[in-house]
Amino acid sequence: HGPSKPKRIKALDPDVVNKIAAGEIIVAPMHALKELIENAVDAGSTAIEVLVKDGGLKLLQITDNGHGIDRDDLPILCERFTTSKLKEFEDLSSIGTYGFRGEALASISHIAHLTVTTKTAGSSCAWRAHYGDGRLVPAKPGQNAAPKATAGRGGTQITVEDLFYNVPTRRRAFRSTSEEYAKILDVVGRYAVHCSGVAFSCRKHGDSGVSISTAASASIVDRIRQIHGSAVANEVVEFEAADKKLGFRASGMATNANYHVKKTTILLFINHRAVESTSVKRAVEQTYSAFLPKGGHPFIYLDLAIEPHRVDVNVHPTKREVNFLNEDEIIELVCNEIRSKLAQVDSSRTFLTQS
Ligand code: ADP
Ligand code: MG
């Protein structure tokens, strides 16, 4: 028999499309949290509190003291592609905020129960709204879905409950809630080091103490100390690099040759977004191999600012990776700077032991 007849092509139901998209953007609780932290920072917050239950699968709550959300915007808040940050496609090349696609809250509302409580400076009360599948939904079946007036402080509290409740295969893929909590602490810790002027705290539901706590006024070294310990903070040196032609400025903190551990830690921010880069990691490890014993690795915080039009932030659904022009040249200049700092510390140490 010959080839079978092709099946007809049909458009997917919008709810199916949205659920698929949501699963690409929010792979694990840490991705939801990263988006919510970035929103809070974008809103000009100076204090951000995170509360977590069951590794974020049961509850992820983030409370900020930012500018809040207008009551009249609440009905469309969780629709896909609604944003206060991007208007034209061209704006993508000059984007100064973390968010830009208006997809985060929409996605979360398709795979979790989402509650928003928010108060702007101009409003006499806070407003609370519940969301499901991109739309306002009532708090209890049969009730009115409209936002309700409530008491509350200035800023926004986002509560995400039962993440992936309607994606059972994804829900079952998480074996350990403590593993997910560790990833959440990693994300909060990264932003806590990077965001000067913002106080961060992260707490596990039911625990009396906090896992992370930094003050708004803490310096970068103090933030590194609070999150990564004195062993790291006591051995970091500051570095800076810049080049007009390549359109970048870099600054950061790197451990000297007195410090080494089994695994490299790189806190990499490109235009204030926490990202990962295998090429940066490879170059950094190569640089340190001349200074550290075999198997020893450094800690590095690298804050890279690149002219927005040279960066493509839109290559990855979770925005985990970004592409930028002249990557190799920029990385080389940064590593040269680190190398010369390490050499300085190394020679002063040799000098001290000799004298
Ligand atoms: P994006 O950040 O890409 O614009 P989001 O879905 O993350 O999209 O958020 C949609 C909009 O909701 C934002 O543009 C912003 O106006 C508002 N918003 C979200 N979170 C907060 C917050 N914590 N404080 C103030 N406004 C917020
Ligand atoms: Mg956002």
Radius of gyration: 23 Å
User: How many strands, what sense, and barrel or not for the largest sheet?
Assistant: 9 strands, mixed
Query: What is the averaged pLDDT score?
Result: 90
CATH H-tier superfamily of the largest domain: Histidine kinase-like ATPase, C-terminal domain
Q: Which cofactor or ligand species appear? A: adenosine-5'-diphosphate, magnesium ion
CATH topology of the largest domain: Heat Shock Protein 90
- Weakly predicted, low-confidence segments: none
Domain DNA mismatch repair protein S5: 224-343
Organism: Penicillium alfredii
Main location: nucleus
Keywords: DNA damage, DNA repair, Nucleus
Question: How is the secondary structure organized here?
Answer:
Elements lengths: L13 H12 L3 H14 L4 E7 L5 E6 L39 H8 L1 E7 L6 E7 L2 E3 L10 E3 L4 E7 L6 H5 L4 H18 L4 E6 L7 E3 L5 H9 L1 H4 L2 E8 L4 E8 L9 E6 L2 E2 L3 H11 L10 E8 L4 E2 L10 E2 L2 H28 L1
Parallel strand pairs: 1-8, 12-14
Antiparallel strand pairs: 1-2, 2-7, 3-4, 3-7, 4-5, 4-6, 8-9, 10-11, 11-14, 12-13, 15-16
Bound molecules: adenosine-5'-diphosphate and magnesium ion.
